[in-house]
Design goal:
Keywords: Cell inner membrane, Cell membrane, Membrane, Transmembrane, Transmembrane helix, Transport. The protein is mostly helical. Helix content is about 70%, strand content about 0%. Helix 25 packs antiparallel against helix 28 (about 625-635) and helix 29 crosses helix 31 (about 695-720).
């Protein structure tokens, strides 16, 4: 198959950062005048420095740490985001009512946000006496924080999350007027503020704590790791690994997105960064525009489920479930592989069906040169994983990962990088990593090299400036997540105050049981169990709600809301807690490529010049692994490895069945396996994939038996086909 010339409209791919700002509401920053820009950059740098320091030398008291974090985050949002999206691209001149180009209202809101956030840490010594009996000043400060927080969240992530929070607060206030099962005694505004503001069940709860303690550090690490070349190294390695095979650029997209996802917890950022290289290459090779965009966006959604950095939800699991982060990582490995395997198989069959070639040798980077040039950028990731899997806290692991990024960024001397890593290994082995005798000397070495680089020449000075800018950008990327987490605290607080979560659980399980009874009424007796059907329909309704909620709510907020409401429901039906959390998490991420609001797919479509809705539909089809796998590990928890009662036999049976089922379904969608598939063959293996993917040896064997006639015919057809060089 001959290459197609690159279309004129793709000769120049849009800037990834501009696309990220266009499709991700968390990145839509306002332009600032020089003086104001320096002030905001200084505050952002201070926020990053605060988190970097506390991660290495010890966190502050819980309420104080969260209060300082929130004061910075919410205050900065009013300086970084405009009140109206229409004003986002307009540089406003300074005037007496717009000091520094920012309105007096925004300055006042920023100050009010900082003051209300720091009020609770300030009265901490008396807090125990105020809970349940708030003073008028407590209520006033709490009301102020709730108002500014909702407005900050609206600016940072859009309307849906604040609307949900406002609706639930109205529900808490007007409880006696609610209908039927939703009726409750209600609460006064003072009691609502008391619960949301003064206790750890609301705004200052687990969600804000996780962002302030873990998430911020890993966002910062991801930005720094990308700046020192780790993202580029991953994409080049993916090209070396998969580029020469059929449909090369599409497979590079999958492997590159999987590797890049290890340091990026954002689907959109992953799409525009990797897609800027892979989407034009796929179109040039002959892939349809919508398919090229769908491949990249689907693979990129794997970033949020790929260890070791999986977005905020993974750290929330640690707090909610009381397990180690390494357990979450281990549980995530196989499901993530299933997602990428599903995309890979569809791309492979599509390439074989269309006769697409791989990339030529001259189009591929030299693996030796790639590793020789970029191996040092792997050291920060190695340092992070070393500390993390040695039993230290996730934020301490992030601290040393960030420190290694700084060293690699300013030095670029192999001997120094190896020496730093060797000392770190010795400190970890001795268990004295947090001791000042180790930490301070290593930091002084890093600081000395940074100063030396700054004073040496312009090129090295530029590296230092770039790393300082990464600290600023990392904080800017994290502030919207912080505001969303605090607003989710309002939602969780109302749920715990009113008990509405258990009422919703009762309604869902009752409805699922009725649907199960309706199915049993038309099936032969004894074929299915009522409890199994109830669980299936509960999972189905939960998945649909996760996807719908994810259309307007960030993944982290979606996860927290659904876990608060759905986890008790699934627990009532016998689902292990970590399995329930992963189920909700996976379907929340799936919303990024599910129309009508598929932000990652739309970002890819914009890069490819494709129809957004068609791209979203194709992306959802390509994500069949992510669609099926959550149901698989609910019925076969051994796939998550760390679940109670784990056995390798159950794991192998469940995983093998999942691989076989995904392969069959991929071939059915593509219309090709070893040779072109007839219509009846596609239908047969598509139906056979369902029992194959279901956990259990007998169901897997039954599915494979159903597919065996097609397998035999495919082998015979493949032998009669003449090999084509273009399909090598």
């Amino acid at each position: 198959m001959t290459d197609k010339p690159l279309p004129a409209d793709l000769a120049t791919i849009p800037d990834p950062q501009s696309l990220e700002e266009k499709f991700d509401p968390e990145m839509r920053f306002r332009p600032l005048l020089p003086g104001t820009a320096w002030l905001v950059a200084g505050l952002l740098l201070a926020l990053s420095s605060f988190h970097y320091y506390t991660a290495g030398f010890g966190l502050l008291r819980e309420t104080t740490h969260r209060g300082i974090h929130m004061a910075f985050v919410i205050g900065l949002i009013f300086l970084v985001f405009t009140a109206r999206q229409a004003d986002r691209d307009r540089l406003v001149p300074a005037s007496w009512y717009r000091p520094g180009g920012i309105s007096l209202v925004d300055w006042a809101l920023a100050v009010a946000a900082a003051g209300a956030s720091l009020y609770v840490p300030w009265i901490f010594e008396d807090l125990a006496f105020r809970i349940g009996n708030p003073s008028p000043l407590d209520v006033a400060m709490g009301t102020t924080l709730i108002v500014v927080l909702l407005e900050a969240t609206r600016r940072g992530v859009g309307w849906p999350l604040p609307v949900i929070a406002i609706g639930l607060m109205l529900y808490a206030y007007f409880g006696p007027s609610m209908p039927g099962i939703f009726k409750h005694p209600g609460a006064s505004w003072a009691n609502i503020v008391n619960h949301l503001y003064l206790t750890s069940q609301g705004i200052y709860g687990v969600a804000l704590g996780v962002v302030a303690t873990y998430v911020f550090h890993y966002v910062l690490f991801g930005v720094l790791a990308t700046r020192i070349g780790l993202g580029k190294l991953f994409i080049d390695l993916a090209s070396c690994l998969a580029g020469r095979y059929a449909g090369g650029p599409a497979k590079v997209s999958i492997f590159g997105s999987a590797l890049f996802g290890m340091i990026s917890g954002s689907s959109i950022a992953n799409t525009v960064t990797v897609g800027s290289l892979t989407i034009p290459a796929m179109i040039r090779l002959g892939y349809p525009r919508h398919f090229a965009a769908a491949v990249e966006s689907t693979a990129s959604t794997g970033g949020q489920i790929t260890p070791p950095i999986m977005g905020a939800a993974a750290f929330l699991m640690v707090e909610f479930l009381g397990i180690s982060y390494t357990s979450v990582i281990l549980a995530a490995v196989v499901p993530a592989l299933m997602h990428f395997f599903g995309v890979f198989m569809q791309v492979h069959f599509e390439a074989k069906r269309s006769g697409m070639r791989g990339m030529r040798a001259e189009e591929l980077p030299n693996p030796v040169a790639v590793l020789r040039e970029g191996w040092q950028s792997l050291m920060p990731l190695g340092a992070l994983l070393l500390v993390l899997f040695s039993g230290f806290t996730p934020y301490l692991a992030a601290f040393w990962g960030i420190t290694a990024c700084i060293l690699v960024g300013v030095v670029r001397v192999p001997a120094v990088t190896i020496g730093f890593f060797a000392v770190l290994c010795l400190a970890v082995a001795a268990g004295v990593l947090t001791a000042l005798a180790v930490t301070v000397p290593l930091l002084l070495v890093v600081a000395a090299f940074a100063v030396r680089a700054w004073l040496s020449d312009d090129e090295n000075k530029a590296r230092v400036i770039d790393l300082i800018d990464a600290f600023v950008v990392g904080a800017k990327y994290a502030i919207s997540v912080g505001a969303a987490a605090a607003t989710v605290g309002i939602i969780v607080g109302v749920v715990t105050l009113t008990g509405v979560g258990f009422k919703i659980s009762f309604i869902v399980t009752t409805l699922a049981a009725q649907m199960g009874e309706a199915v049993l009424a038309v099936l032969p007796g004894g074929l299915l169990e009522p409890k199994s059907l109830t669980l299936f329909f509960t999972l189905l309704m939960t998945a649909i709600v996760c996807i719908l909620l994810g259309c307007g709510v960030p993944t982290t907020a979606n996860y927290i809301i659904m876990v608060t409401v759905a986890a008790p429901t699934l627990g009532m039906l016998g689902v292990v807690p970590i399995v329930a959390h992963f189920f909700v998490f996976y379907y929340g991420v799936l919303a990024d490529i599910t129309p009508p609001v598929a932000l990652a797919a739309y970002a890819g479509a914009s890069m490819a010049g494709a129809d957004p809705f068609r791209t979203g539909n194709t992306a959802f089809r390509l994500a069949l692994g992510k669609v099926l796998v959550p149901f698989v590990f609910v019925y076969g928890p051994a796939m998550l490895i760390v679940t109670p009662g784990f056995t390798w036999a159950d794991f192998l049976v469940t995983t093998f069945g999942c691989v076989a089922g995904i392969t069959l379904l991929s071939a059915a969608f593509a219309g090709y396996a070893l040779a072109p598939l007839a219509g009846w063959e596609r239908w047969l293996i598509g139906i056979a994939a369902l029992p194959t993917v279901a956990p259990g040896l007998m169901s897997t064997l039954a599915g494979l038996a159903m597919a065996s006639p097609v397998a035999v015919r495919q082998v015979l057809a493949a032998r009669t086909m003449r090999p084509s060089p273009s399909m090598a």
